Amino acid sequence: MITFLSTRIRWILIFWIFTISAVAYLDRVNISIAGRSIANEFHLTNVELGWVFSAFVIGYAIAQAPAGWLADRLGPRLVITAGVIWWGIFTSALTMLSAQMGGLIVLLMMFRFLLGIGEAVMYPASNCVIASWIPSSERGIANGFIFAGVGFGAGVTPPLIAYIITVYSWRASFWFSAALGLLAGAIWYALSRNTPKQHPWTTEQEKRYIEAGLPANPAKHAGSRLPWRAIVSDKNILAVTFSYFCYGYAAYIFFSWFFIYLNDVRGLNLRQSSYYTMLPFIAMALGSPIGGWISDRLTRRRGKRIGRCGVAAVGIGLSALFIALGTQVQSAQLATIILAGGAGALYLSQSSFWSVSADIGGKSAGSVSGFMNMGGQFGGALTASLTPAIANHLGWNASFLVAAGLCACGALAWLVVKPEEDPASLG
User: Fold this and answer.
1) Rounded CA gap, 307 and 293, in Å?
2) What is the arithmetic mean of pLDDT over 376-396?
3) For helices 64-74 and 76-93, what crossing angle results, to 10°?
4) Fewest CB within 10 A of the end CB: N or C in the chain?
C-alpha cells in the first residue's frame, strides 16, 4: 500500500478534489432544499426564489474566466484554498438575514452572487491540476472522478439538509455546510502542490510517467500561455462552450428546481422529495466516472475525435431523449427514475468537456476551461429564472422539454469539434 501511494500522489490529489467538489455542491444545492423554508420565512414567490438561484449562477458564470486566469498564474493550491474560505463566509452570511430587513431580496441575491464568485475557482483550478499532474490517457477517468463529486455532493444533500432543517433549522444546515468546506480546504492546502516537481512525496518514477504522458505542444507555444484572442476566436473552443451552455441549462434544472418540482408538482412530501431527489445525483455520480473510463478507452483505441467528442455527443443526445420521455410519464416515481436516467446520461459527457479543454489549453487550461464553464453557468443562470417562468405560462412539462431541446443542440455541436487542432495559431 505504501509503495502504491508513493507512486500515485496524483490520484490522492484527484480524490481530494473529488471531496472538495462534493462539498462545493453541498454548499450550492442546500438552498434548493432549504428554499421552501427560506421562501416561507422571507415571503418569497417561486419567481423571486428563482432570482436568488440565478444570482449565484450569474456570479459563478462571470467569474469563471478570471478564476481560470488566476489559477493559471497563482496555481491551484492557493486559489482553491482561498475559494473555499470565501464560500464558507458567504454561505454563512445568508443566515444573518431576517424578514424584517429592508431590501431583503437584494441582500439575498447579493450574498448568493458573491458565493458564486467564490465557487467559480473550483473547476478551472482543478483543470490546472489535471493539466500538470495527469497524463492525457488518464484525463477522462480523472475528470470523471472529480465530477462524480458533483453527483455525490448533490446526492447526499437532500436527505442530509432535510434532516438538519427538520431537527434544527435551515440556518443550521448552512453553518454545517460552511464548516465542512473550511475543513476540506485546510486539508487541501496541506496536501497539495501545483506541480509534481514541487511535491515532496512525488517519486522520480511518477514524475517521469506524468511527463511522458502529457500532450505534446507545438514548439511555437510550448511552455507558454495562450492569448485571450486565440481562446475566444477558436471554433473548437466556441463549439465546446456552446455545448456546455446547453449542458448547464439541463443540469441546473436538477440542481435548482427538481426538489421543488417533486414537492409541489408531483405531490411528494418533504421526506419523499428528499429521497427521490437523490436519484438524479446518484446517476450523475455513476455516469461521470463511467463516461470518463469509456472516453479514455476509446481515445486510446480510436483517437480523441471518437473517444472525447463521440462520447460527449452520445451522452448529451441520450439525455435529451430521457428528459423528454420523463415529461410524458404520469407516475411520479417512474418519472423520477427516467429523469434520473437523463441526468446520468448527461454526466457521461462531463469528462469529455474538461479533458478536451485541458488538452487544448495546456499551460492555459484554467483560462480555456474557465471560458467554457462560463458558458455552462450562463446556461444554468438562464434555467434558474426561466424554468419557473415557463412553468407558470406553459406548465412544467414545457420547462423540461426546453431543456431536452437544448441538449439535442449541445450534442450536435460536438460534431464540429476537432480537439487535435492548435488554437495558438490564431494568436
Assistant:
1) 10
2) 83
3) 140
4) N
Nearest CA to 310 out of 411, 215, 242 is that of 411
| Residue 182: how many other CB atoms lie within 10 Å | 16
Amino acid at the residue 62: I
The 8-class DSSP code of residue 75 comes to -
- What pLDDT is recorded for position 256? 74
How many angstroms from the chain centroid is the CA of residue 58?
A: 14
Domain 7-211+227-426 class, CATH top level: mainly alpha
Contacts of 144 (CB under 8 A, 6+ apart): 288, 289, 290, 291, 292, 293, 295, 350, 351
Q: At what angle do helices 122-133 and 365-394 cross, to 10 degrees?
A: 140
Cell of 182: 473550511
> Which three cell numbers, joined as nine digits, stand for 106?
437584494
**Which of 153-176 are b and which e, b meaning 16 or more Cβ less than 10 Å from the residue's Cβ?**
bbbbbbebbbebbeeeebbebbbb
By residue count, the chain amounts to 427
